[in-house]
Each structure stands twice: as structure tokens, then as C-alpha cells.
Specification:
By secondary structure, this protein is an alpha/beta fold. The protein is built from nine helices and ten strands.
Length: about 325
């Protein structure tokens, strides 16, 4: 693995104004100290005009049976104090509450009252998850239609410290374009890889229009065309990223496995600081941003992820 460029070790540039008006910070875990916050997460917090910290309290069945509800609430209160202490130490305008109830209900109430324009989720690492059912992030993103940034914290209070480039997943869709623009507003000046993952055509039978005379030569030609198309899409994403103020380069890659796994492997290989994705991609064989892909990336990546959903027009 190549070492990250020195420029990537520099702090994210300060914002001249809040790129996020109101940030809802849902914390099921807290880092050991504020210096453990991943750089992209710190940039999201620094970009917020106001922060509301929420520490959900959801005792499990055993806690209810053992009458340990008060202890669970005490832990949530302590976590709230810790996270608020971190926020105040870096100058964030933050308040918060530890609220009992189901996670989605508690978040829905906070969204209705606080009216955030971005949600930050501090989750326990997958092997130590608490109330985080597998599809939690996807449920939140779909229900509230807000940008969602997630990061994992291990039991020792450590989180990702990667300083590599941003990984911008791009398939040419409007959600992908919006995600890059949003990343530019939050992480201006950062180095980025615009990643287009494409899947080769393995079966001519799926392309009836090729006709009965189709041969292996046709398959090779189709895959060459697909590779060239992926390169053009990645180049298009770079143009969007450059216009958004990022230092971007294209990265089109072929995969024969799961798209989400390829994205996570690329992120690991380049020590990516964060993965940025739209939540809905193009229909058809070129799409890499289907809900199942983004959900799997969030679940398996050990680094911050930012998911952007195209706003739904009011009826």
C-alpha cells in the first residue's frame, strides 16, 4: 500500500460559513477523546452551525427482566456528557439529550423538533452492535431523506484514523452528482478518487439484441465498450468534483464479485479517509449505487461513510 501524500495529513480547511445549518448527532458510542474523531467526521462537525447530540436509551429484554433499566439510562447519560464535552472542547455550539424509546421513534422526534439538515451516526463496531439492526442507516436515510454520515467506534473508543483520499462512488446518476457536490462543500481542497465500478458482461444470452450469430468476439467487444464507458463516467465525475473544489482523479475498475465488496476493498487499499455515495443510482447494468450496495458498504466499511439522497420534490 502506498503512503498517503503529505497534503492529506493537513487539517481540513476551515469553513467560512456553516455548510450544515443543524447537525443531529446520534451517538450509540463515544470516542475515548476528541482527538480520536476521524478527520472527515471532525469536518462535518466543524461545518455545522448547531449540533444536537442524541444518545438513545433502548434496554434489551434481559435488562428489562433484570430490572437494569436505570443502569442503561445512566450509561446513556454518561455517554451524552462525554460527547457534549467533546463538542464543547472543539468550539461546537452543542446541546443534547438522552431519550428512552425505540431508535427510529427517538430520532423521528428529534428530527421533527430540531429540524436538522444532516445526521451524524456514531455506531459501535459491527461485532459489538447494540440497537443497530443491519438496515438501520438505510431506514434512517430513506425515512428522513437527509444526508447521513456514519462512523464506527470500537470498545476502546478508537475510530478510523485514515488520512488517504476521499472515495467518491460515481455512476453518473443525479444522486451521485449531488453526493460529490455535497462532499465538495464539506471537504473543499481534499484529494479524491472518483470510483466507477463496472461489471463485465458474462452471458450473451442476456443481450437478445445481439442475435443468433453472436460470438465470443461480440462479448469481448461489448466488454471493451463497457470499460470505455466506465472510464468516461469516471471522467465526468472528476469534472463534477473539480467544480466542487476537490482535487480529483478518475478510477474505473472492473469487478466480477459484489460491487459493495469492491468498493470496500478499494477504500482499504487507498486508506480512504471516507466513502461518499449517493443512495440511489441509475437503473440497469451500470448502476453501482443501488440501496443494497450502499447498505452493505455502510455495514462493512471500517471508515466514515457519507450517504446523500436526492431531495424529494414537494407535491
Amino acid at each position: 500500500m502506498s503512503k498517503p501524500e503529505t497534503a492529506d495529513l493537513e487539517p481540513y480547511p476551515p469553513h467560512t460559513g456553516p455548510a450544515i445549518q443543524r447537525l443531529l448527532f446520534v451517538a450509540d458510542a463515544a470516542v475515548a477523546d476528541v482527538g480520536q474523531l476521524p478527520p472527515p467526521v471532525r469536518a462535518v462537525i466543524d461545518a455545522a452551525g448547531a449540533v444536537f447530540v442524541l444518545t438513545p436509551t433502548l434496554p434489551g429484554r434481559l435488562a428489562w427482566l433484570a430490572d437494569e433499566v436505570d443502569e442503561v439510562r445512566h450509561v446513556a447519560d454518561e455517554r451524552l456528557d462525554t460527547v457534549l464535552g467533546h463538542m464543547h472542547s472543539i468550539g461546537a455550539h452543542a446541546s443534547g439529550a438522552a431519550i428512552p424509546g425505540s431508535v427510529l421513534t427517538v430520532i423521528a422526534d428529534a428530527v421533527a423538533e430540531f429540524k436538522p439538515d444532516h445526521i451524524l451516526l456514531a455506531l459501535r463496531s459491527a461485532q459489538h452492535a447494540n440497537w443497530q439492526e443491519r438496515g438501520l442507516v438505510e431506514h434512517i436515510e430513506q425515512r428522513f431523506g437527509l444526508p447521513v454520515t456514519t462512523y464506527a467506534v470500537d470498545p476502546r473508543g478508537h475510530a478510523s484514523s485514515a488520512h488517504g483520499p476521499l472515495l467518491l462512488c460515481f455512476d453518473g446518476s443525479e444522486d451521485a452528482r449531488l453526493a460529490i457536490k455535497r462532499a465538495g462543500a464539506l471537504f473543499a481542497g481534499r484529494r479524491a478518487l472518483v470510483v466507477m465500478v463496472w461489471e463485465p458482461i458474462a452471458d450473451l444470452n442476456s443481450f437478445a439484441w445481439t442475435g443468433p450469430t453472436a460470438t465470443a468476439v461480440d462479448l469481448v467487444a461489448l466488454n471493451r465498450a463497457a470499460a470505455a464507458d466506465a472510464g468516461r463516467v469516471a471522467d465526468d465525475g472528476v469534472r463534477v468534483a473539480l467544480e466542487a473544489g476537490l482535487k480529483a482523479e478518475p478510477f474505473a475498475v472492473e469487478t466480477t464479485g459484489a460491487v459493495w465488496k469492491t468498493i470496500v476493498e478499494i477504500a482499504d487499499r487507498h486508506d480512504a479517509a471516507a466513502i461518499v455515495m449517493g443512495s440511489r443510482g441509475l437503473a440497469g447494468v451500470r448502476s453501482m449505487l443501488l440501496g443494497s450496495v450502499s447498505s452493505e458498504v455502510v455495514h462493512h466499511a471500517d471508515r466514515p461513510t457519507l450517504m446523500i439522497r436526492q431531495p424529494v420534490a414537494a407535491a
